Amino acid sequence: MHCNPVEVVPSEAKRIAYAYQLAADGDARAALVHAIDDALTDLAEAERRSLRSDRLISRGFDWGGVPLTGPKA
Questions:
Q1: Which of 16, 34, 35, 69 has the maximum number of C-beta atoms within 10 A of its C-beta?
Q2: So which domain of life are we looking at (predicted)?
Q3: pTM score, whole prediction
Q4: What is the CA radius of gyration of the chain?
Q5: What is the pLDDT along the chain (73 residues), one digit of tens a residue?
Q6: Domain residue extents for the chain
Q7: DSSP string covering 3-37
Q8: In degrees, to the nearest 5, what angle opens at C-alpha 66 toward C-alphas 65 and 70?
Q9: Residue 66 pLDDT
Q10: pLDDT at residue number 35
Q11: Are 47 and 40 in contact (CB under 8 A)?
Q12: How far is CA 36 from CA 40, 42, 49, 71, in A?
């Protein structure tokens, strides 16, 4: 009985981890620290953007920059 070979595709997380480990010359600890640092930087940037959007919306603007309130009477 012959079995067809099955391609094993690593998960995105495993590919990212491998890339960080290669960049750290095989040092798993350094790779982990770098990955966490990058993740925290990305998270802080996303939070900054979210807060900026909240401020724009709270001042009466939508994404198009058009006031949400009608004309003053």
A1: 35
A2: Bacteria
A3: 0.59
A4: 23
A5: 567 777 778 899 999 999 999 999 999 999 999 999 999 999 999 998 888 877 666 655 555 555 556 555 5
A6: 12-58
A7: ---------HHHHHHHHHHHHTTT-HHHHHHHHHH
A8: 155
A9: 56
A10: 96
A11: no
A12: 6, 10, 20, 49
CA 5 distance to own-chain centroid:
34
Q: What pLDDT shows up at residue 7?
A: 76
Residue 62 is given by DSSP the state -
For residue 54, what are the CA distances in angstroms to 42, 45, 49, 64, 73? 18, 14, 9, 14, 27
* Residue 38: its H or E element: helix 28-58
Determine how many CB atoms are found less than 10 A away from the CB of residue 24.
16
Contact 17, 29 (CB under 8 A): no
